[in-house]
Amino acid sequence: MITARAAHTFEPVGRSVAAARAFVRDTLQGWGFGDVVDDAVVLTSELVTNAVVHAGTAAEVVCLRSGDGVRIEVSDRYPEREIPLQSGGVQMGSPDREGGRGLQLCAALASRWGVEYSPAHKHVWFRLDLPERQVGTRAAGPSVSTELLPLADDRVRVAVIQIDSEGAVSAWNDDAQELFGYPAKQIIGQPLTDHAAWPHTPGTSTGIADALRLSRWEGSYGIRAADGRVVPVYASHLRVRDPQGDPSTVCLLVRDDERAVLATPQRGAAPEAAHRADGQSSDPFETFIGSPAPDDLDGLLQRTVERSRDMLDGDAAFLLLATDDETELEVRATTGLPSARQRFARVPVDTGSGRYGTARMPAVHEDLAAVPGAVPLLDGTGMRSVVTVPLKVEGRLTGSLGVAAEGSGRYSNEEALRLQFAADRIALAVESARLGELERLRRGSLSFLVEASDLLAGTLDRDQTLALMAQMTVPTLATWCAVYTIADTASEPYLSYVLHEDEERIDGLKELLGRIEPPEPVPTPGARIWPAPARAAHEAALEASVRSLDDEPHHLGSGISSTLTTAASVGGETVVLPLVARNRVIGMLVLGKPSEDHFRQENLELAEDLSRRAALALDNSRLYSERMAISQSLQRSLLPPELPEVPGVEVEVIYRAAGEGNEVGGDFYDLFSIPDGAYGFAIGDVCGTGPEAAAVTGLARHALRLLAREGYSGPAVLERLNNAILDEGERSRFLTLLYGELRPQQDGGALLKVVCAGHPLPLRLRQDGSVQPAAEPQPLLGVMDDLELYEQTVRLEPGDVLLCVTDGITERREGSRMLGDDGLAEVLRGCTGLTAGAVASRVMRAVERFAADSPSDDMAILTMRVPEPQRN
């Protein structure tokens, strides 16, 4: 049943993709559906991209809420773009292909999805169900329903075997006889090692003799039966003492495919966990497991270490989770340890030889002073005795739980047994919560990378790209960030950008990083530790402390206090990620944490993904900047560097090139001196815009100057220029050109000789406000071989204005309206009495206001005015 609906239509433009993501995110968060927001945003982004970018149509996004989930529909108006089908349904194709990727994501993330067609639309929809949330009390350990238990011929047989301190079988029950074929009188007294097919535990040298002496062991091996075959078994070994006080081991064995029988929490409690005389449980974990478990992993882990410490009356406790490859353990929760033992610090699983050097087995250290470095996490903490046990799920190491005390000799195998039982009961809950957190992080990371890629792709400005890189990492992934760039292979890394989550510390951070050598530009992928900033921060803090003692013993100055604050914010873990683009290291991304803090592995993996995208965006911005600088330098050479001052005549030019990044297009102008005290002027328009038109612009402007200064008349100059353009062959473009010679007169006027070759006619504004064309039209250049051009003479009296423009001015459009020659003349009539600069500005302002859209053609305005004589 649909209980709420939200819809919005997005135009077929690139920015609509980000707007659609924001719409879906805000809608679902408003409905309280935060558990599925990340998946919904990723799927919506892909489907809307298909509609507005690939299909080129508007997209309608509809969100429908029901009690147990949400349905999102994305519709476009291009149903002809059908999805290729196979006999079994939609053909997904390769994951590396651009097309069809949205449907692959639907198949991977959505509960249900589909495609529907109507006469005018195509609808792609997906549904996301809300995750089930258990209510009430639940067990923290693994829970297996009756339906999931393995089937047996008649009943599950559990062999109970007791092994004495010498390793010989001292008890053998009836189920053991049924499973393996040996009667008790035949097997008792024989070493179990004679009948066990024992595989070594990976990563250790532990054999069955060692396992029988451990306080707790669980895993799979084999027993050679009486008929010679090996029976695979799943075993749980428990170290106990018999009534005489001698140590022995009780082994519970079932067939290996019946391991769920021993893997459930109902397998019993340790002997030491018996109820007290008052009927209350002496095991704090019994109360903890029965209470509602925290919803988040951090709360579950913190409660675990606190109860572990209380259970064994310890001074400290810690819980570490294993990485996916089981080579390192990451600190996730501690109690009673110094602040230096912060979360996400990592220690190796195996620190030495033997079972005491691995976290895979329970271990009791009676005095750490005798074995320094045995538990690296406790170095320098003052703890003397410690007991550690592994957390395992289905035989795989998932973590380590430890309790420590300041006194020596506090713990023995009995405490290890109690802690191991507690660890067994909590292991599956911890692993389940960890996997849930990891899944949420990975889905959130996918959404983060989608938006990061969108932002990085939206700019080609180098400085903005650097700022985006830093802003996306701080504070999401790190406390502070620095970006080093490398111009070329011969250049040293340069500190280009620094950002701290506290803006007041940015300057101090820059100063601190400026005191140390930049990191080495190593192309090896992945994050590597960079200890230099932490060392520099420590040294700066020591220097500041010494100065405070020497100068002001009882009061820290503001500068010293700032130094200490900055050092504390930089004193934690610092990592460097290479920025590699096109097989070259172009920089380094440096991420840092505050004092004694550490990065979690998931964030480093996300930072590595981000660094790859950021490196390509940064290199693209570099290439764009270099090519833009080259282009602008060449384009600037096509325009006159400055206009000469003409005696007795005001001259003003306004130029606007169409297209982003273009300084010169197809329109051009020039004003230059020629012999006999005259000045040549030109304004022209090459067919088209952009670099191709600019090439002809350069040819025309330089040819005009050369020919005019050789003494050729106006018609002769244009005829020779026409031949030069035609000689360009296929690269030639036709050109409209107004060329003239300006000669100031002794009486205060100006004489002009003008040739108008296909160009908009120049307009003359008189003092009385009348406007007339100042020339007649003649053939344009670059089309015909033989041209017969002539020049016309125009005299400007004091107060007269000559306005010359390109067709980008007269052809300015707003819908079906065009400014035209008449509109331009009307604007010019209102410019009586204005200076040349004021006339040009008013004309340009009128043209810009004529239409709302940006100009699509180059525009140039050249005005010349003979000023009126000044009155005394």
UniProtKB/TrEMBL annotation:
Region (Disordered): 264-283
InterPro entries: Bact_Sigma-Reg, GAF, GAF-like_dom_sf, HATPase_C_sf, HATPase_dom, PAS, PAS-like_dom_sf, PAS_fold
Gene3D superfamilies named among the record's database cross-references: 3.30.450.40, Histidine kinase-like ATPase, C-terminal domain, PAS domain, PPM-type phosphatase domain
Pfam family, any one: HATPase_c_2
Keywords: Hydrolase
Domain called PAS: residue spans: 145-190
Protein name per Swiss-Prot or TrEMBL: PAS domain-containing protein
Native organism taxonomy: Bacteria, Bacillati, Actinomycetota, Actinomycetes, Kitasatosporales
